[in-house]
Amino acid sequence: MVYLYLIIVTTGITILVNRYYARKKRNLILTLWDRNKKLDYPINSHETFNYFYENTKGSSKDDYCVDDITWNDLNMGKIFENLNYTFTSVGEEILFYRLKKAHERHLINEELIERITRDGIYRSKLSLILSNLGKLTFANSSQYIFGKPDYKVNKVYFILSLIPIIGVITMFVSLQLGISMVLISMLVNIFIYYSNQSKNEVEFKSLFYCLHVISSSRKIAKLNHDHEFIKQTTKLKKATFISFFLIQDDDNGSNLVLQLFTLVKTIFLIDYFIFNYIIKVLSNNRELYEMAWRQLGNIDCCYSIALWRKTLPFYCLPKYTSNSPLVIQDAYHPLLDKPVGNNFDFHKNILLTGSNASGKSTFIKTIAINIVLSQALNTSTSKEIILKRGLVYSSMAMSDDIEKGQSYFISEINALKRIFDVRETSKDNFIYLFIDEVFKGTNTIERIAAAESVLNFLSDYKQTRIMAATHDLELTEKLAAKYDNYHFREQIINDEITFDYLIKDGPSKTKNAIELLRIKKFPEKVYREAIINTKSLVN
Predict the structure, then answer these.
(1) In which domain of life is the source organism classified (predicted)?
(2) Rounded CA gap, 197 and 191, in Å?
């Protein structure tokens, strides 16, 4: 009797504690929007947010994407992290997919984004539903959209699950035999349970998450008065109905009731049968599950876009054209705290010059990022953008690859070659190319000669717009017929170097690298000799 009271008291305390933390979390969630904050989750260092993107590769219409080199060049990982206000793993995977496959025609529900932004009551209800689903590392919930899982039930397991019951019945005939049957079957089934759990733990959690995706999508449909969706997904409801049986105790085993419940499930191998049943339901209703999965992910993604836009100084919705590739006003880099806006008309291939730190690389990234964000999220960090849809590829932040034994120059060669390959194999696609410091890793003579040849060749493709940055002013003259020249300029006033970060017409006319030796107080002899050396090289 004492043990019964202890169980009741412990369970009661556990329920009160859980309610306290649930209310605390609820209050936190309801204030996230006003504070421009995201719900804290464990850092997804394993990048499981790329599951959906990886799963779609076999069924995708094309292989084009913002590839790894371009992704790293544009620091898209940091941008993804900054704008990722999603509540769920599904929304996170959809968001990542859209950025990687930016060129696809993604449908962005602007009406929903507007409602999330303006309707606080609706936003709060939606946030609570999404946050209740939450994120689960390694929850590959989209695999059941594309894969064909094996859900055949082992008949031996079915027999083993019945033996404890048979043993209890046998006790009425032979107590000793019945007890032996019950004990042995319990030990065997417990061993089987934990063996299967250790092998299928990740998939088990994924399945449990799938059920929550289905139930959450139906709750959102009810919130949106989407009766057609609720009707269509009725077949999936039977899978969510039995999700109760998958509930497990937490890691510290504080809930005695759940511990007893888990023990009963273990003895009768209930989780094994439910596991296979759910896979069967999902497999037989794959299209319905995909619809529920995508709809929930898209809604969560809309919330993320809405909150991200709220944090921006200003933004605009892109307009698309089949004529001029890109016209943009007050374009700025989304990662800068105090960005400087630039107007730009990308009607012709561009050659950018200017000193280090003047803003060339940042401007190139700003234009490239805005093309990606416009197509992926229907959002540009500018006051206006008119663009032509297209692929984005870059060759910018090259480095020595010690593991592969590659020098900077070899890395750059490989990056440029893959641009040539893409351009050759996708002649019908419009492509934006961004190249920073062409052949920086080799000597001056070969660099200029090779850069001129590469940029000349790429400019001959009609479906291409190129922006390249260089320190080699010789290229501005050699490529003048095919490339417009722009530059960024610095000023030295009272021995202080300043930048306005505004793009200007024409090639750069200033050469302040040697003057910086004086400003930074290098030995006078070094400074004077550098000036003399410069004159001799020019002559």
Answers:
(1) Bacteria
(2) 10
